[in-house]
Fold:
Amino acid sequence: MKYAFPDNFWWGSASSALQTEGAREGETTWDDWFAREPNRFHNGVGPQQTSTFYQHWKTDIQLLKQLNHNSFRTSISWARLIPDGIGEVNPDAVDFYNQVIDELNEQGITPFITLFHFDMPMAMQEIGGWENRDVVDAYARYAQICFELFGDRVLHWFTFNEPIVPVEGGYLYDFHYPNVVDFRRAATVAYHTVLAHAKAVQAYRAGHYAGEIGIVLNLTPSYPRSQNPADVKAAHVADLMFNRSFLDPVLRGEYPADQVALLKSYDQLPACKPEDGFLIAEGKIDLLGINYYQPRRVKCRDSAVNPQAPFMPEWFFDSYEMPGRKMNPYRGWEIYAPGIYDILINLRDNYGNPRCFISENGMGVENEQRFIENGQINDQYRIEFISEHLTWLHKGISEGCNCLGYHMWTFIDNWSWCNAYKNRYGFIQLDLETQQRTIKKSGEWFAATALNNSFEKE
Structure:
């Protein structure tokens, strides 16, 4: 069967500054953490060992062109542009980003630019990071500088990538710096991130730029084990915590009332100012980026909460492993393609059908060299993964969902936070020793799909 997509559909991939550029001047939290605890990083590989986009941007953009991308998302590094977060702008960074943006546009590849992709300048973290409202103001200034420098040529801006991840990783579950386990502080970080987002949107609107501004959220549909009211309630709370805590403010301009009531009843609400509500209401977006990798399956708790344990989202639900689920064993994630459709239908039915696109979707696999045939990685599993998700995406579009594109994570195998290069995600294989790039089978498949604006599937 042939699956054809709407005209002007965005075909591309996504990456980030920190994971690809290397050769950075300004220090981020990742550099500092790696210096302190290299053992927390897979094989001791830190954030300086990237796919060297800073040196190879021009030839890499040629590869994007070869893969028939008409769009590409990456980020600007706050720490590269303003090394101390608040002071002078680094002219070398301005030159670099100008060259990248101009080359993308020249090659007919629309740049999608994210302002913050987990890379807090260390100088900002030292004064409290997102716990400190001064950092919110510093970020708003940084955003405004970016709009002024590049807003004439970048027409698609995103304030944050997956803002729930620094909250979960840094302040709940100890997988990002600063390795805090404290729900109230996590709630404050999440809340201040929403304020920072809204201030950036405000600045963008005030500048009357020609493009649009949005945010990229990783949405994990919460599926209850059963229709038992206790399971349904557990899934609802998980949805509030991990999806709606950002989705509602950016699409509706306010938080869900039941989320506020829940956190208030446990005395976990962040400190608010009277004017915050007006600011949040002004943060409504033009375009939503959706990162979808896996579903969240939950059930009601089977055991009582330890009253001495730190307050956590898991006070309200347990994870549930659905029998027969399809797994990516390397990442430990469930593969569930219908989730992408469920996200779109939820947005259509409950959020006014906003303009959106899939900003990330992908499959990380370990030791892909096993699959080399005639000098090329034959990653048929990735082709199947993408085509399966695109089939469900196509169904959503055919039922009226306002989804405008699909970006794969990622373009070239890149450094991935604490996992470093353990799992590879790219359309293009990276040889770490030589930095040689080799297109995988999935890259060829995607190039053909983008060229034809369609693909065939049995």
Observations:
- Residues 325 and 334 are 7 Å apart (CA to CA).
